[in-house]
Amino acid sequence: MIESSFKIIQGGMGVGVSNWVLARSVARQGQLGVISGTGIAAVLARHLQTGDPGGHFRRAFDAFPYHNIAQRVWNRYFVPGGINPATPFKSTPMPNIEFSRALEELTVLAAFSEVFLANEGHPGLVGINLLEKVQPPTLATLFGAMLADVDYVLMGAGIPRFIPGVLDALARGEPAALKMDVEGADSGENFDSHFNPTEFIARDGNSDHTSAPKLKRPMFFAIVSSATLAMTLARKSNGRVDGFVVETSVAGGHNAPPRGPLQLTATGEPVYGPRDDADLKKIAEIGLPFYLAGGFGTHAQLDWALSQGAAGIQVGTAFAFCQESGIRADLKQRVLAIAASGQATVFTDPQASPTGFPFKVVALPETMSDPDKYLQRERKCDLGYLRKVYKRPDGTPGYRCAAEPVSDYVAKGGREEDTIGRKCLCNALFATIGLAQVDALGVSETAIVTAGDDVVNISRYIQPGKTSYSSADVLNQILHGSPVSQAALS
Fold first, then answer.
1. Cα(26)–Cα(476) distance, integer angstroms
2. Distance separating alpha carbons of residues 424 and 197, to the nearest angstrom
3. Which terminus of the chain, N or C, has less C-beta within 10 A?
4. Beta-sheet pairing, 126-131 with 176-179
5. What is the phi-psi region of residue 245: left when phi exceeds 0, alpha when psi lies from -120 to 50, beta otherwise?
6. Domains of the chain by range and CATH?
7. Band of residue 99 on the pLDDT scale cut at 50, 70, 90
8. Mean pLDDT over all residues of the chain?
9. pLDDT per residue over 127-143, tens digit each?
């Protein structure tokens, strides 16, 4: 068994669910706290428009080494006292292969701020989680996180074999490039995004900052679902892979599709079988630390993972509904109530995500799991994080999302059948963390709640006499098997 300084990785969940508050709490308790990098620029922009309650982001901005850049971002988005709840948030630029300067500065500041705040006041370890399929923001996000001394980078939902080389380049203060997945691109044709640390710093206009700093190279963990992918990444990545998170199909959020032709259950969920189980023996033979994820939430399950040669486990769903996470308090309480009553259900929806990956959705009235709510929403794409890049007839990159207006999608060469059942996860997930966009009439976007199958068991963490639980309750249960009364489980 490979030893590690931590046995639990707190999952990097969704848009703003794994925020700096949660990551800091977990890291202070000796485990790996992780912030979510998905949509992080728009998360920061909207927090600033709510008035930065508590002044936390102001503190992070003051610590950012390039003060003129920080002040530009602050001036662009900060609203003293916060906007009226019925007022739409100021939009952020859409993430394209080549970022606008404004979006690049916002993204770097957002990643820096979340990692800085998560790191504040303790010696623990902090990581950032990114999705490989959300490619355009990656370089700026990594640079911002590294400026704040992030310890780990975790990435899945794809084959992130070029990320180690990016981390190496940014650590040396050198320009970095990342190949984009572009539908319709010819063999050997590359569409790359670029980030140059020196050019970025030069925008600050400070003669004291003329070259990019050398930065700590964070450890890189790839999130995988098979031994084959783990071995490919270990052998063929363009730099050092430091470990793996091995995720099963019961984990929340996006899941890897089943192997082979897609088959559905009678209720419409993808069928996973033995071929989808990772070969842990082969993964252990690679010789790198690995952590098991998906349905691991007890002391006994941690012990089992260790017995298989794992260095520990990654835990997502349990942390998603703890007090420190970014999910709206009312949604947490509703999910806790149905879990305690034994009525919680999760549907692995093969159509919900514009990416085509299966996506787990908690059945909860008045959210996007309600078919009527889905049908009532006017289709639009104004955040753009899950858009796919495609090659236009003129050879330039275009962007389309299967959840945008159907006519727009088809006009861009998409197939109408690919739009059926697609949900705007971007806007729905922002609503889940209390940062919902509103329209001109003051009508808010509707939330969507994602969780792993283990959501049915989250009431195990509630102590007697309480109605919620903390990250410490989760860690105590898993690390030490702390007893919980039957009353808390009823």
1. 11
2. 33
3. C
4. unpaired
5. beta
6. 8-328+466-489 (3.20.20)
7. confident
8. 92
9. 999 999 899 999 999 99
Helix (H) or strand (E) holding 176: strand 176-179
Cβ contact 346:454 at 8 Å? no
As given in the structure block, the two tokens for residue 480 are 């030490």
Displacement of CA 204 from its chain's centroid (Å)? 29
41: CB partners within 8 A, 6+ apart: 92, 95, 103, 106, 107, 110, 137
Reference 354, options 417, 413, 423; nearest CA is: 423
Hey, what are 131's tokens? 């999705």
SS3 of residue 118 by DSSP: helix
Chain segment 363-388, per-residue pLDDT in tens? 999 999 999 999 999 999 999 999 99
**Which residue from 171, 174, 96 is spatially nearest to 138, judged by alpha carbons?**
96
Residue with tokens 């009312």: 330
What is the full DSSP assignment across 12-45?
Answer: --TTTTS-HHHHHHHHHTTSBEEEE-TTHHHHHH
46 and 430 Cβ atoms separated by less than 8 Å = yes
DSSP reduced 3-state for 438: strand
Closest to 49 measured CA to CA, from 18, 76, 16, 20 = 76
Separation of alpha carbons 367 and 340, rounded Å: 20
Is pTM beyond 0.70? Reply is: yes
Distances (CA, A) of 312 to 12, 187, 359, 470: 16, 40, 25, 20
Say what angle helices 471-480 and 299-307 make with each other, to 10 degrees: 50
